[in-house]
Amino acid sequence: MFVMIATAVTAGLHAAAQTEQAREIWQHVSELFAAAHVSAGARVADVGAGDGFLTVRLASAVGPSGKVYAVDIDEKVLGGLRHRKADAHIANVDVVVGGEGDPHLPADALDAAFIVNAYHEMPKGVAVLERVLAALKPGGRLVLCEPVPRTANQTRAAQMSDHVLDPALILDDLRAAGFQIVDRQDAFAMNFGGTKFGFIVARRP
């Protein structure tokens, strides 16, 4: 019985690792990091960190001299992320409990920030972006990667309910928050379900 349980757990972990490896490829993680100029020693934030998919990869990219702030508002999700961090012996990640309109990041401290597949879940998006801007050093970059609507002319509320967001709306929010736009690609990536992901790079002036 115990052997069967151990085998099932091992198989589950292996399947999860394979799924994350596939996601790393289709979501072009290396390109996301390059766009944000992530390098060893950098201080970065993963806002809307979820299960830590991006967080653990950022932790490796910035190395022991760097720092990753993994932010989410869901305590249960963050509990899982803390376990993942402990199991992988990751020492350069701070898990942060964010607020609906405030990711609770240190001011003028970050070289880069990421919001990946999470901005469409933020009803106070501009407030979050303003706080991210304040947390970035001058010239620091924010990379957003969000699913794009398949149906045109939906209201913002309808898009958010469908877990997507038009890149044009995100650009408006970024400019309202004080960001400068560096790059925009509306068909940057596509998942296995056929959903396209847009990609926007912005910077603090």
Write a brief structural summary:
The protein is α/β, with parallel strands linked by helices and 205 residues long.
Present the secondary structure layout.
Blueprint: H1 2-26, H2 29-35, E1 43-47, H3 53-62, E2 67-72, H4 75-87, E3 93-97, E4 110-116, H5 125-135, E5 136-147, H6 156-161, H7 167-177, E6 180-190, E7 196-203
Parallel strand pairs: 1-2, 1-4, 2-3, 4-5
Antiparallel strand pairs: 5-7, 6-7
Helix pairs in contact: 5-7
Could you give the count of β-strands? 7
Main sheet record: 7 strands, mixed
Strand order of the largest sheet: 3-2-1-4-5-7-6
What sort of overall outline do the alpha carbons produce when their principal axes are compared? globular
Estimate what percentage of residues fall within beta strands.
25-35%
**Number of helices, where a helix is a run of at least 4 consecutive DSSP H or I residues:** 7
- The CATH class label is Alpha Beta
What's the architecture in CATH terms?
3-Layer(aba) Sandwich
Question: What is the percent of helical residues?
Answer: 40-55%
Low-confidence stretches: 1-15
Reported by name, the CATH topology is: Rossmann fold
Structural class: alpha/beta
Q: State the end-to-end distance.
A: 60 Å
Q: Summarize model confidence as the mean pLDDT.
A: 91
User: Please, how many domains?
Assistant: 1
CATH superfamily: Vaccinia Virus protein VP39
The radius of gyration over CA amounts to 17 Å
